[in-house]
Amino acid sequence: MRKRKRSGIRRRYLKYTAALLGLALILSILGVGAYVRERLTQATLDKYEFMTERMGIALENLFQKSDEAMEECILYDDVQESLKNQGLEAVNTIALSKYFAYIDLDHVADYCYIDNKGNVYSKSYSDVTSETIAQSGFEDYLGPEYSRTKWFWAKDTLFGTGDEALFIGRYVRSLDYAHEPGMLFFKMEDSFLDDITGMSQELVSEAVIGLVDGEGQLCLSWAPDGFQTGDEIGKMVASKIGGTQAAGMFLNGEKMQGGIVSAYLDENSGLTVFSFVPDSVLNKALVPVLLVPVVIYLFVIAIAVVLSIYFSRRFTKPIQVISDAMTGFDGNNFDRTIQLNTHTELDEIGQSYNAMLQNIRRLLEEIKAQEQELRHTELNMLISQINPHFLYNTLDTIYMLARINKEETTMRMIQALSKYLRLSLSKGSEIVTVEDELENVKSYMEIQQIRNQDLFEYSIDCQVDESSAYVLKLILQPLVENAVKYGFCDIFQGGIIKISVFEKDRDLYLRVYNNGMPMEMSVMEKINSMNTMSFSQLKECFPDKKNGYGVMNIMTRLRLKYGEGAGLFCEVYKDGTACTVKIPGGGQEDACEK
């Protein structure tokens, strides 16, 4: 016969070992990665936030320097003279035009000053006029303030270059008289703002740095090689500033698509400097840290697999011996034992298997003997203790004496007892019709009525064919006896016993109800639990045999005759107790012989 293919415990052990080690590797990498990433990210954030703050402070210093240069220009004598009504002489006009080229402010690309009379002072080659200044719209950038230095990023429509640049402007007012102010504008080179990143070259090499004005316009940006400009980043930063944003650091390490951003708002200039650190910078330090545990775990996995193969071969050989012995057991040969000498728990398994074989053989023999004995014990006891013919003749003699003396009650009792005994013996048969079983219990109840005058009344409702339905004999009488003995123990009259026989779901049910004292819940639960007990447990259920012996006897006989499908169930009501016997197969005669 072809042998069925099996996986084998050794192969499964190796699979599970590899799976567990792989899972441990993945979880360790995830755990270490999450921890290291968090720590490295926080350290990187702290570093770049510090650098961003330094750039913001550098931006403030630049504004302060430009403000001081503006104040110096306003205080210059020729500037103040130009605001007076008489104006400057030609020599002083030329000198003033050259003066602005030598102010203490670096990276000035171009300049122009227009006094309150429309005179323009600029470089000698410049063609800036008062009309040019008016058309440029730069005066609007100076705002309503009396005299305050303003930075603004705009297209150069003043000097005619047309490029975007940073402009510094301010109203120039007389210190002595209330005249109309003049205006001073400086166009700054892009290198003017390089001082912002001068102390953060590391930041410039790894992150995107940019300047955003108050209107959300990106002024300048510095990006590492191969990285996109900061237009989108600048728009996001500008949207976060808002009208009420306080000066100083904000967006401290805020996550956005592709990285994290920090920003610093200079309230004086209205510009915001920001730094955007890409995820690649955050992750580049993570790879070498994770590489170490990966290499270690791969090495451990390799060693573990080799050792697992070696030890699995040693320990699975005796397991295979046990498996072959169990698989080859045919249920008949109880002498096929196994012998192991591994000095491990497998030896105990082998010994337990050998002991199990002997126990199975012994139990099978005991079960066969006990079943045969239990099937005939009750009948043999009745037959051995009672001589039916002698008993019937004696009862007939007593009946005739009672009839002669006209003892009606005695006559009724003797007739009921005679019928009860005759039906109980049933010529040695264990199976009787429902009709005979009902006649038997009816005789028993008549005897009890005579003994306990006016104690109870009874009724019988049979909804099946009495002559064609069969049951195990003497199963109703113990239930009626318990009803009289325990249910009616505290009453003297008014008792009711109702016996009903009916069929449900192709099973036969015999129900005995009494309106006496309800059964205790603990007793009911114990009786109902007997339906799932083994024979040995049934014997231990009522060990003293003083109480419950009749119920245990019924349950044992039902189980032996009908198997697991039979049962005895009790139900407790406020006004009494009902006990129901279930006979599988609808009480058919062939079902009784199973």
**CATH level 3 topology of the domain at 429-434 and 450-592:** Heat Shock Protein 90
Would you state the CATH class of the domain at 429-434 and 450-592? Alpha Beta
Tally of individual helices: 18
Number of strands: 17
The backbone outline, from C-alpha atoms, is elongated
Q: Could you tell me the strand content as a percent range?
A: 15-25%
Detailed description of the structure:
With 594 residues, this protein is of the alpha+beta class. β6 and β7 (218-222) form a beta hairpin. Mean pLDDT is 79; it is low at 1-5 and 381-386. Among the domains are: 76-192, 2-Layer Sandwich (Beta-Lactamase); 329-380; 429-434 and 450-592, Histidine kinase-like ATPase, C-terminal domain (Heat Shock Protein 90), CATH 3.30.565.10. A five-stranded antiparallel beta sheet has the order 2-1-5-4-3. The chain is built from 18 helices and 17 strands. It is elongated, with a radius of gyration of 56 Å.
